[in-house]
Design brief:
mainly alpha, 8 helices, 72% helix, 6% strand
Length: 181
């Protein structure tokens, strides 16, 4: 894609145009996904991290400086999202630089207060999921409650992979908005 076409697509996405956001996601999905997969080595986690990455990209798109390469900017967000994911899964032993340098992140045992907060947040999350429009609720249930792959979801709901990605992205955004209120 020409740089000028990419910049106009980014401008449209900055305005919140869903078609432009979908086009950007489709354009950069494979690059971001395989960047993450090459380090995480788990397809399911890589898909989840990629969706979270695009969620962050679209939320921060107004901060993007067009003097810099969009892919590099998006990849930096992917890297930081991947680190957040690794920190949330202490059982992972993942190399982010090369095969010679690995690190482990220790598990933090939640205090009784933190455990209570987590329980309350889970209850709020389940309520939020039930309040989603049906098209979003179904993909969230299949992905996160039944732990199905994007491919399985697409097959079960007779959707394209792109459609599944977009629905999960939008559902996560709705859930995040609900949880922040």
């Amino acid at each position: 894609m020409k740089a000028s076409n990419l910049q106009s697509l980014i401008q449209e996405a900055k305005k919140g145009k869903q078609a432009a956001q979908t086009a950007l996601m489709n354009l950069f999905w494979d690059k971001i996904y395989f960047f993450i997969l090459s380090r995480i080595k788990n397809e399911t986690d890589a898909e989840d991290i990629t969706i979270r990455t695009f969620t962050k990209i679209f939320r921060k798109l107004k901060l993007y400086n067009e003097d810099f390469d969009f892919h590099t900017w998006a990849r930096a967000i992917a890297y930081n999202t991947m680190i957040d994911h690794i920190r949330s899964k202490p059982e992972l032993n993942v190399s982010l630089d090369n095969e010679l340098s690995t690190f482990e992140i220790e598990a933090a045992v939640p205090s009784p207060e933190q455990h209570f907060i987590i329980k309350q947040d889970n209850k709020k999350l389940m309520t939020a999921i039930q309040n989603l429009p049906e098209i979003y609720k179904k993909v969230i249930e299949l992905r996160f409650l039944e732990e199905k792959t994007y491919k399985d979801i697409a097959k079960e709901l007779n959707l394209t992979m792109s459609n599944v990605k977009v629905r999960i992205l939008r559902a996560r955004n709705l859930l995040e908005d609900y949880m922040n209120d």
